[in-house]
């Protein structure tokens, strides 16, 4: 598979060797450039929505780096001699794959506020360290992390009203028109509050606001329309 030319803006990582341990693999190799790369940075060896590998930079000497990749994230694409685009962990591989997909049709839409539902949810929280206990472990009376005492607390939350509540969530009220903004994926401008029009992929246009991606008009015209993916590296 030849890499998408639109991804030439990204640094590339060439795999030299792989050593697998119980949970992680150490993937060593070299970056084509290291301007925004540092130890402890997280990113993706990008392939596609499902086949990208999340990785942490653990060593960096010049452009030679060691990446720690959890074994569950290893794929056949990561092999000796492979060269893969490196996507900064600020981005989701799935979102990039969506933006690259030429079968998607984007539509200019006006942001319309929708109703929000307020709910409460009972959780067990450690009184000492604040850890929220997994409901599966509610039988035990002590925190799994620090053995502190668990206390029942009711937390409230809200979501777009078109989605059903979970069985452990209790309806409080509907707030009309309360879901009134979502961020542009690229520049974070608030669509709905700061900018009334945006772009959505047509299968999401007209649906709930809180699913799928939003792009503001500026970013759509600056980046997506001319196929310029420079925003991935801040240009
Ligand atoms: Zn605790
Ligand atoms: Zn934008």
Rg: 22 Å
Tally of separate helices: 2
Strand content bin: 35-45%
Number of strands: 14
Strand order, largest beta sheet: 1-2-5-4-3-6
The 3D shape can be described as flat
* First-to-last CA distance: 27 Å
Largest sheet composition? 6 strands, antiparallel, barrel
Q: Would you list the SSEs in sequence order as H and E?
A: EEEEEEHEEEEEEEEH
Helix proportion: under 10%
Description of the molecule:
The structure is a single chain. With 235 residues, the protein is mainly β. Helix content is 7%, strand content 40%. The protein contains two helices and 14 strands; from the N terminus they run E-E-E-E-E-E-H-E-E-E-E-E-E-E-E-H. It has helices spanning 93-100, 217-224, and strands at residues 12-20, 24-31, 42-45, 53-61, 64-70, 83-88, 106-110, 114-126, 150-160, 169-179, 182-183, 190-191, 197-201, 215-216. The protein has a six-stranded antiparallel beta barrel. Strand 3 and strand 4 (53-61) form a beta hairpin. The longest helix is centred in the middle third of the chain and has 8 residues, at 93-100. The two termini are 27 Å apart. The mean pLDDT is 93.
């Amino acid at each position: 598979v030849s890499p998408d030319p639109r991804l030439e803006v990204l640094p590339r990582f060439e795999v030299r060797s792989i050593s697998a341990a119980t949970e992680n693999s150490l993937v060593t190799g070299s970056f084509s450039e290291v301007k925004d790369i540092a130890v402890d940075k997280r990113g993706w060896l990008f392939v596609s929505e499902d086949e990208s590998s999340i990785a942490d930079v653990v060593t960096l000497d010049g452009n030679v780096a060691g990446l720690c990749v959890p074994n569950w994230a290893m794929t056949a694409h990561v092999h000796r001699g492979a060269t893969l685009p490196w996507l900064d962990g600020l981005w989701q591989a799935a979102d990039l794959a969506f933006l690259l997909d030429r079968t998607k049709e984007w539509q200019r839409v006006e942001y319309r506020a929708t109703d929000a539902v307020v709910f409460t949810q009972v959780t067990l929280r450690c009184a000492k360290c604040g850890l929220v206990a997994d409901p599966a472990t509610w039988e035990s009376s002590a925190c799994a992390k620090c053995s502190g005492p668990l206390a029942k607390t009711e937390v409230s939350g809200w979501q777009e009203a078109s989605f059903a509540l979970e069985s452990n969530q209790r309806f409080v009220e509907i707030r009309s028109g309360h879901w009134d903004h979502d961020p542009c994926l690229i520049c974070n401008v608030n669509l709905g509050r700061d900018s009334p029009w945006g772009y959505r992929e047509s299968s999401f246009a007209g649906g709930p606001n809180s699913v799928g991606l939003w792009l503001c008009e500026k970013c759509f015209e600056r980046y997506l329309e001319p196929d310029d993916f420079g925003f991935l590296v801040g240009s």
